[in-house]
Amino acid sequence: MTSANFGRIVDDGPLFGACRPGHLGGDLAEWTEILETNGVSGVLCLLSEREASRWGLPGEYGETFDTAHVPIRDRHLPNIERLRSAVEFIERMTADGGRVVLHCNAGLGRTGVVAAGWVAHDRDCSPEAAIDAVETRPWPRAPREAIRDGNATEEELYELLERI
């Protein structure tokens, strides 16, 4: 595992997942180098407002990457407006061949939900297929984290992904 928990979401796709800079011990410079080495041009921060303020993100890397911040509460599902906003940012950034990294704190739950939303939308596939795609990667994400923690149901996750 790298200090960024960095990995591609689907084999042939422009989307990657990662943890926030510093979460696994690496510093901002190391995190930035990993992203730049992999051709990433955009970063979508999924930290809550409180977390983002605590770590100064996305401002800390805003001069290096095109960024957006779509705050999602830890271990919860986003509402449909926030998920759509996240997917729209990914679409804008990748339309001309750009690569985007999603990050929350660990790069698992919120990153997994947004990644599954993008897969469902971009690949026009079912929620089940989208979830499976992001859970079975060499660097797997955890879109069911909110369910495991009792903050959402499987049905709510599927409904959210169907609406995207």
TrEMBL record:
SUPFAM superfamilies, A to Z: (Phosphotyrosine protein) phosphatases II
Pfam families in the cross-refs: Tc-R-P (PF22785)
Tyrosine specific protein phosphatases domain location: 81-147
InterPro entries: Prot-tyrosine_phosphatase-like, Tyr_Pase_AS, Tyr_Pase_dom
Superkingdom of origin: Archaea
Name the record gives this protein: Protein-tyrosine phosphatase
